[in-house]
Amino acid sequence: MPILLAHFDRPKGKVVPGMSLRQILPALEQALGQPVRFASDCIGPEAEDAAAAMKPGDVLLLENTRFHAGEEANDPDFAAALAKLGDIYCNDAFSAAHRAHASTEALAHRLPSCAGLLMAEELAALDRALGHPERPVTAIVGGSKVSTKLELLMNLVGRVDHLVIGGGMANTFLAAQGAQIGRSLHEPDLAGRALAILEEAKEKGCNLVLPRDVVTARALRAGEPEFIHAAHDCPPDQMILDVGPQTVMDIGTILARSRTLVWNGPLGAFETKPFDAATHAVALKAAELTRSGSLLSVAGGGDTVAALNEVGVAGDFTYVSTAGGPSSNGWKARNSPV
Q1: Residues at the annotated binding site?
Q2: Structural domain spans, the chain
Q3: Is 3-115 CATH 3.40.50.1260?
Q4: Stated pTM of the model
Q5: Which positions carry the signal peptide feature in this UniProt record (predicted)?
Q6: Which class is 121-332 in CATH?
């Protein structure tokens, strides 16, 4: 008899009616094809009574675990209260697996534990891509900020053959090398870390690929006139919003020579046309190579998945992860036992 734990949004330890899990009951019942009981708390007398009243075949959904501050604090007493409700703990929430919260970490120490089928599938895909990959291995890492992916980048330079950096992250690397990037988004305080990653890549024999040309505009607006410039020469009144066509060709050439691809983060401001062009083109190329059997491709991250779905090629990739944070954290931790 399964008892389901989940969180929704960020109520910060308080009861927020609009974040109640009660609202997902219809969709859950439709997915399971049966009625689902609901308890308006996840611990305490009501949750305990609901669990005790279950009969064979019943499914019980408990209220948002984040309505209690003990959840995100990974509080052992809160975990103990959760543990009273069941006999075995199964974690199938890969999208939250990188967070050390009570329902994802502390609870696993209080009950016999196992990974769910989705969790096992995700870990197997990451292992194929980075644990025991076919080489050459290429990683594409994009997104807006280097600060959110510093550990990931440092880890990848030691285990992939080619590391392609795009998005706003690339601007920080370009600026650190003295490039003129105009009004582009970047993190000047991380210039030293960017140069250290470049040096680490050189020492490890990793080909770190930065944009050779870029697409720029005066504003991030749909239909805004776009320009193509050398990556080191963005005009002062413009901003870099995508990698350019020559860089797309370079990435395509690298992918054609690769056997494994891991991808986390878009190459440009893909939510706004026409700055989705590079991400779309590379997605199409990776999908083509995957269909031909020459490339194993694993993609993760909400923006990456959204881009692949927009192009209509998500189904062509070898594996598309359900989450972003856990995917990148999994890439960082492949030296650790699963």
Answers
A1: 149, 271, 301-304
A2: 3-115, 121-332
A3: yes
A4: 0.74
A5: none
A6: alpha beta
